[in-house]
Amino acid sequence: MKKDIALRLTPQEASDEKFYKPLVAKKMKVSPDKITAIRVRKRSIDARQRQVMVQLYLDVYVNSPAPDPEKTVFEYQDVSSKPEVIVIGAGPGGLFTALRLIELGYKPIVLERGKSISDRKKDIALLNRNHPVNPESNYAFGEGGAGTFSDGKLYTRSTKRGDFKKILNVLHFHGAQDDILIDSHPHIGTDKLPGVIKSMRESIINSGGEVLFNSCVSDLLIEDAQVKGVVLKDCAKIYGVAVVLATGHSARDVYEMLHQKSIEVEAKTWAMGVRVEHPQELIDQIQYHNPEGRGPYLPAASYSFSCQIEDRGVYSFCMCPGGFIVPAMTGENEMVVNGMSPSKRNSPFANSGMVVEIRPEDIPAEFKKYGVLAGLEYQKEVERLCFINGGNNLVAPAQRLTDFVDSKLSFDLPETSYVPGAIASPLHFVLPEGISKRLQGGFKQFGKWAKGFIDPEAIVMGTESRTSSPVRIPRDPVSMQHKQIKGLFPCGEGAGYAGGIASSAIDGERCAEAVARMIGGQ
Ligand code: FAD
């Protein structure tokens, strides 16, 4: 007999079957020795009340053998002689497009401007030693895209839970830990992501697909408003029956190429701000309402804040508990920060983006001459200002959070996880007023909700500018093809149709399905 049981437990009770098995037996009114297996189906933490509780949803087997733990197996067919579809970019959008194309019987040719994970790791190591950024191999470009060296949070606002479950299953099949199938807020961690991504690449290649690194697409081959293929930077031409454009939000040259070719791109709302970092212990104390912190049974605490200040959203973004701030720029004269965490989320720091919504009409007048690319140029300018204020290298301009909120220069800075280092800078003044004033208002509001959040040991760093793209590549909602160019499928975050790993992956799967519909003449 199998029974579904829901239990609300203390963190210690929920930490091990040896603690909760007697409670399950009591609730089911059976003897513990009759229980043959307990499988956790879902797990979530409820930290709203002073006593933090853990909600467990369990499958309990009584007097009957339990099946093996669930593992969805994907069998990818041989597509080596099938029609070829070009996928530009090996981020979550591109990789999930490629795997879904294989399921549907098409051969993906994935073109990635950056390097394979193992070679990319070397460039990331150099970057953290304050070497100049390699514009083709960094935290945004290379195998796995922007999602590889990240926290690997897997959230989505997609209302289709089936789509999300499939993404989790694909990641699990390729080596992600069992917990991602159970936790209400799953995450993989930057130590595990490279192995998962490499395994996805192997699935593509073993099925007859191709993944080509150091292959930057610089142009599209178009005839009679239909895409026929692509041109690489080394002038090589590659042809395909369709082209999926999954180049992410940092490929500014791609937007510029499209714009120059009069292929429509449009301005959209995005967000920019700072990254804030606290001692993790402080966030644990605040979020778990306990001066002792998280104790032995709870994970590093996270937070999510959002409010409106002067008619614009101010919100936390990509919070990384137990993580590190990383240099996420892709070119010279740019200062960009982001965050990542290992699977155990065990660094002593908690960081998060804190950003302000920016609408096209908020962009200063001097950028208007760039038309639909004005947001891109404004984004570049803020990154350049932060680069100069950091001292023209990878050192980040920074301020104590308390000083930022009070518009004061910091005389010294707290410890930070950001390896290239930080230098005191008046960020409240360096950032455009529309951003810094709203951030100050937002921080004050968050400090009211989370007492202790505005702490002198917290640091803010500039700039968190790559939250999403200021530009969208418009596509037809049904065919998913570019409104002007048949066979061109804008995909993922760079196209403006996703934000984050999971939603980019879902969008990749949908683009592959749309490609199949087009080829099938539907
Ligand atoms: P990308 O991942 O940006 O991939 C695009 C790929 O295209 C890149 O590999 C790039 O090299 C390649 N490319 C670009 N131009 C060309 C060209 N011309 N020719 C060939 N290839 C090209 N999201 C989450 O959901 N959870 C997180 O925890 C999280 N943490 C993050 C941490 C960091 C440090 C960063 C930078 C981002 C993080 N994100 C996180 C965001 C997430 O990584 C992105 O939303 C996601 O990767 C977008 O997927 P994508 O495939 O659309 O684009």
From TrEMBL:
Top-rank taxon: Bacteria
Alphabetized InterPro entries for the sequence: FAD-binding_protein, FAD-depend_C, FAD/NAD-bd_sf
Residue spans crossing the bilayer: none
Residues annotated as domain FAD-dependent protein C-terminal: 270-467
PANTHER family attached to this UniProt entry: FAD/NAD(P)-BINDING OXIDOREDUCTASE, FAD_NAD(P)-BINDING OXIDOREDUCTASE FAMILY PROTEIN
Protein name per the record: FAD-binding protein
Species for this entry: Plebeiibacterium marinum
